[in-house]
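Project outcomes to date are best conveyed with an example. Our students and postdoctoral researchers have been running inverse folding experiments weekly, and each run begins with a structure described purely in tokens. The record below, which covers 554 residues, was selected by the lab manager from last quarter's runs and is presented without edits.
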């Protein structure tokens, strides 16, 4: 039997029993082109062309293999070449395309096949052009896949039919070339990989897993960032503590002496006085000055996290303990561990902290053995620990362990002579070229109560430097504040040395303040007449009022 002997009407008919169209003796399903266009559109729309073309090719290949086996069952062809030609005829009979072969060379013994030909009116090219403009690549995937599958079944080795030009590209017809993979020089595994279909549900579940993992990582990283933020690993600029007050000088001399020992130090002072700055000052002058300085804010972490930060934990000792952690006591080595806001440590942790300081060993959360530690401990608090001890909120034994050497940083309002020095220093650090503060701004700073201490001053200077836009800083450049005025307006005399008339005015105001605004009594104390007193007050030029809450009470 030859391919040219095939008769469409013998192959394709109607099953008398069911009324179904049949090919040979198997059921044939007829789809309309329009419906296929919808299918194609939806496939491309949801998967993209690349995946769609792989699915089409695989479908065509499967169809071609089945058809080849069916044809070989139905008829006894003269030669494999005739069978392959029969497959091409089948493409035409089933409406895929009008297929013709130009050349064919076949060697069954060597399993070699090379053939080429053309398709005209391929249903895929027609379908494409009915929906889309001419394309930049061939589209006849089912047609070429069918021929690949058919020839592969005949040759019993993988044959790949490639479309070289396509009608959908604007050519008058499609052309193809078929060869075995060996003759194409292709690696069968590579072809298998390219033509494999990734299952969307599998891909989705893989992506979902990746997403879950990423979310988990992110949550863990966020937790770590939170912890890191509460620690202070940032390098402190190597600056000394700016001061000229006698109280600070005394404090620093003491601090230098105690730095040389390894005694535990308790730094007390209001918030913003620079307790960590002092701790670093001591650390730099201590024996372990080149070793790590680790700081932790004990108020910033919940008790469970605080324990594992300080003492470390063993992998798996609680949810989220993905690996062993050494803890700050161990990490600090022979350096310094700075425990800020130590007064906020919960009671159940106080016993563990006491043990770490007293016995110089720690046990990791979930750990079984004690690890020796050497770090020097500097603790700090803005609370009155002794009062907390009296109230039973802080362990007495821990207090005495910590306060081996207590240091107290005086609040800024008690060392006003440091204010201008500090302010100039902050300004120079932020804006080296800045022309500085006007006398009234200086007075305002020195008069302010500084409840937030040095940190508040630093914020003010930073704010004013911006507001002044490179000009001298005036009182109105400072942030508005409701802070109480100082008790003694003459304090600033030690710094800004005002002219005599201003001095008169300030002193007059002070006396008026003391006499609760009684001018007669004030004049008596000052040894001047009421009219002179009146003149002193009137001469004052109005400021923005912030510095002068002690002002005229007439
Ligand atoms: Zn084509």
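After processing, the design step wrote out the following sequence:
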């Amino acid at each position: 039997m030859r391919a040219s002997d095939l008769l469409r009407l013998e192959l394709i008919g109607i099953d008398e029993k069911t009324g179904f169209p049949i090919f040979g003796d198997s059921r044939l399903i007829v789809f309309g082109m329009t419906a296929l266009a919808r299918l194609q559109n939806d496939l491309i729309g949801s998967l993209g062309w690349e995946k769609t073309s792989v699915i089409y090719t695989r479908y065509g290949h499967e169809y071609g293999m089945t058809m080849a086996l069916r044809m070989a069952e139905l008829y006894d062809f003269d030669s494999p070449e005739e069978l392959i030609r029969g497959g091409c005829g089948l493409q035409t009979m089933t409406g895929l395309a009008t297929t013709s072969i130009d050349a064919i060379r076949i060697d069954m013994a060597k399993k070699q096949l090379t053939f080429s030909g053309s398709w005209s009116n391929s249903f895929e090219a027609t379908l494409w052009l009915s929906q889309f403009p001419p394309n930049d690549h061939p589209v006849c995937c089912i047609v070429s896949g069918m021929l690949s599958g058919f020839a592969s079944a005949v040759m019993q080795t993988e044959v790949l039919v490639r479309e070289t030009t396509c009608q959908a590209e604007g050519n008058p017809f499609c052309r193809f070339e078929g060869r075995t993979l060996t003759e194409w020089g292709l690696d069968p595994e590579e072809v298998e990989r390219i033509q494999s279909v990734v299952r969307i549900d599998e891909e989705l579940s893989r992506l979902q897993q990746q997403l879950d993992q990423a979310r988990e990582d992110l949550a863990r990283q966020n937790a770590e960032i939170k912890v890191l933020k509460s620690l202070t690993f940032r390098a402190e600029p190597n600056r000394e503590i700016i001061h000229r007050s006698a109280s600070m000088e005394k404090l620093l001399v003491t601090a230098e002496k105690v730095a040389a020992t390894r005694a535990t130090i308790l730094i007390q002072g209001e918030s913003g006085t620079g307790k960590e700055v002092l701790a670093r000052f001591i650390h730099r002058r201590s024996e372990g000055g080149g070793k790590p300085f680790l700081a932790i804010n004990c108020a910033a972490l919940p008790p469970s996290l605080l324990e594992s930060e300080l003492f470390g934990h063993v992998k798996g000792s609680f949810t989220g303990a993905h690996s062993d952690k050494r803890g700050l006591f161990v990490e600090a080595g022979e350096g310094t561990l700075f425990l800020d806001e130590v007064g906020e440590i919960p009671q159940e942790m106080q016993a563990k902290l006491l043990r770490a300081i007293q016995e110089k060993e720690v046990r990791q959360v979930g750990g079984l053995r004690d690890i020796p530690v050497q770090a020097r401990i500097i603790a700090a608090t803005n609370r009155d620990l002794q009062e907390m001890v009296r109230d039973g909120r802080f362990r007495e034994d821990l207090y005495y362990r910590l306060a081996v050497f207590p240091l107290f940083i005086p609040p800024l309002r008690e060392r006003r002579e440091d204010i201008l020095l500090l302010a100039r220093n902050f300004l120079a650090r932020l804006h080296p070229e800045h022309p500085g503060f006007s006398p009234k701004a200086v007075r305002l700073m020195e008069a302010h109560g500084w409840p937030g201490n040095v940190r508040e001053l630093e914020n003010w200077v930073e704010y004013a430097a911006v507001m002044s836009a490179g000009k001298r800083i005036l009182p109105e450049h400072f942030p508005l504040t409701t802070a109480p005025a100082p008790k003694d307006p003459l304090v600033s005399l030690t710094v800004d040395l005002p002219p005599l008339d201003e001095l008169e005015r300030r002193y007059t105001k002070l006396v008026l303040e003391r006499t609760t605004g009684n001018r007669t009594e004030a004049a008596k104390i000052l040894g001047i007449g009421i009219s002179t007193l009146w003149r002193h007050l009137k001469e004052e030029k109005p400021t923005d009022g912030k510095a002068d809450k002690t002002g005229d009470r007439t």
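Residues 200-230 form the longest helix (31 residues). Residues 413-484 form a domain with the Helicase, Ruva Protein; domain 3 fold (CATH 1.10.8.60). The training component of this project remains on track.
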